[in-house]
Amino acid sequence: MCPGNHESAGKRRFGGRCHDNQHLQPVLVEAAWSAVRHPGYLRSLYHRHVMKNGGYRSPVAKKKAIVTVAHAMIVIIWHVLATGKPYHELGEDYFTTRKDPEKEAQRLIAKLQVLGHKVTVELAPA
């Protein structure tokens, strides 16, 4: 379930995924389909990759995203088995809250200033 790696002269190209275990792969994909139907980190990972690969109208995007989720699940399983610690759910809002809000605001302000806009920032009332 690992992604393929095709790199030459510093350029990364699509390499396809490895076709290793024929018995484990369908089980992981079925488990991934089940996991994306419940709120949590894996569902948000699925949504993020579907949108990255072409949106919900594209069957190819959904399949690529499911393989990504299955890969994430096998990584989680490996870490649980290797460390002996229980799985800690990162939460559905992991991708939106993982960045420092102050740094993200500064990045967006700088981007607007490069585009020629004058930016003044006020805190929203609580």
How would you characterize this protein structure?
By secondary structure, the chain is mostly helical. The chain has one domain. It has five helices and two strands, in the order ββααααα. Strand 1 and strand 2 form a beta hairpin. Helix 1 crosses helix 3 and helix 2 packs antiparallel against helix 3. The longest helix is centred in the middle third of the chain and has 25 residues. The radius of gyration is 19 Å and the shape is extended. The protein starts with 5 loop residues before the first strand and ends in a 12-residue tail after the last helix. The mean pLDDT is 88.
**Main β-sheet, spatial strand arrangement:** 1-2
* Beta strands, count: 2
Shape: extended
Radius of gyration: 19 Å
Amount of beta strand: under 5%
Give average pLDDT, whole number.
88
Helix content: 40-55%
Please identify the structural class as seen in this structure: mainly alpha
- Give helix and strand order, one letter per element, not per position: EEHHHHH
Count of the separate structural domains: 1
Name the assembly state: single chain
Low-confidence stretches: none
Q: Let me know the largest β-sheet.
A: 2 strands, antiparallel
What distance separates the N and C termini? Answer: 46 Å
Report the total helices.
5
Keywords:
mainly alpha, single chain, two-stranded antiparallel ribbon, 126 residues
Q: How are the SSEs ordered, and which strands pair?
A:
Blueprint: E1 6-8, E2 11-13, H1 24-35, H2 41-53, H3 59-83, H4 94-97, H5 101-114
Antiparallel strand pairs: 1-2
Helix pairs in contact: 1-3, 2-3
